[in-house]
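Renewal narrative, Specific Aim 1. Our central claim is that a sequence can be written position by position from structural information alone. The example that follows is taken directly from our test logs and has not been curated for this report. It begins with the structure tokens describing the chain, in the order in which they were read.
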């Protein structure tokens, strides 16, 4: 056991740097908690979908990065907040799918 712990520490120190994130399960089902730094919006939306057990489809025009902290929010509320921040359009489709696309200027 003593050999394993230093080996794990060495592996962790050799890992390449990536956007920092922390994901936790919220106590109430359907609620999510996570923290991300310099994360791509597509990764953020994917995380919300997976943690909130939602089905989403992202259009190719969904782009951007952000640092955010979500604490014990319903997944749908977190999705709507991210959509508002990035000026994204959410469209509910049949089968419980949510399509996400960039809003087009009128």
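The sequence written for that structure reads:
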């Amino acid at each position: 056991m003593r050999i394993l712990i230093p080996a794990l520490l060495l592996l962790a120190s050799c890992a390449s740097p990536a956007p920092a994130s922390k994901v936790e399960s919220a106590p109430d089902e359907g609620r999510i908690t996570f923290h991300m730094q310099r994360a791509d919006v597509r990764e953020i939306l994917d995380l919300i979908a997976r943690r909130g057990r939602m089905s989403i489809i992202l259009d190719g025009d969904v782009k951007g990065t952000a640092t955010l902290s979500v604490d014990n929010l319903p997944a749908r509320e977190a999705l709507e907040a991210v959509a508002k921040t990035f000026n994204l359009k959410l469209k509910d489709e049949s089968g419980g799918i949510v399509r996400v696309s960039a809003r087009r200027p009128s």
